[in-house]
Amino acid sequence: MTHLGYLFAAYTVVIGGIALYLRRLIVRLGAVDRELAELRRRLEAADRRR
Amino acid sequence: MRTMELWLGALGCAGLVAALYAALLLAPAAVGESVAQRILYLHAPSAFAAYGCIFVVAIASALYLWKRSAAADRVAVAAAEVGVLMCTLVLVTGSIWGRARWGAWWTPDPRLTLTLILWAIYLSYVLLRAFGGDDDEIAPYAAVLGIFGVLAIPAIRVSARLMKGMHPSVLAPREGGGSGLADPYMKLAFWGGAVAMLLVAACLVLLRTRLERAERETMALRRVADAAEGVAG
User: Fold this and answer.
1) CATH hierarchy code of domain B2-168+180-232
2) With pLDDT > 70 as the criterion, what percentage of chain B qualifies?
3) Chain A residues within 8 Å of chain B (Cβ atoms)
4) Helix, strand or coil for residue B163?
């Protein structure tokens, strides 16, 4: 039963690793989408000024 | 998330849950092995997913060099990052299993060493793309690295056959020197886990590709917006 800790550690690494990476992707996608919307708004404002 | 990514992710997660249920509760213990042997049911599928991603990098890189397709380049960048993640999981889980089985975190086994080299090649690819400077200048060199790096995969398979290392050969039958997957539930956990992990990796590659496209679009748009504001101001 002493090897149960190794099994738990390995499963945690795989599931945790994938979950953390997925979270990072979703957070970055959200940030980039917001930045894209802001840039489009800036472009429209610059177009109106011209 | 878009429909395709959602479906792949949902199917992959459901498959992983089912495979883990089979691995932990249905599959019998392997003869002469401790409970740590069940690490196999996530370790090997992570390896399949890593190989799958690396093949995608090689194919997308070849397409980029042939057609100069920006879409192929984005897919290569995304698959390389997910491939490095999967390869890291293979190395870490393998090391934990090795500690339980051999009492050592690492041994200079040919398959282990070549997997570390494969990881290092694609980590260099990811670092090159992240910090190498102008994408248009770096992309062809990275594509060549992405194509030649894939040769490490057949080298891993050949080394496992030619050189007798400590790494267990799971798919070989017991009489052939392997550890074998004698029980149907072992096969279900193993192959179910492999398919599920490939689906999860495909979902991650699609998401990462979308992020790559959005980041490049943001960079281009930022330049246009700065120039437009300069003219307007």
Assistant:
1) 1.20.120
2) 93
3) 1, 3-4, 6-7, 9-11, 13-14, 17-18, 21-22, 25-26, 28-29, 32-33, 35-36, 39-40, 42-43, 46-47, 49-50
4) coil
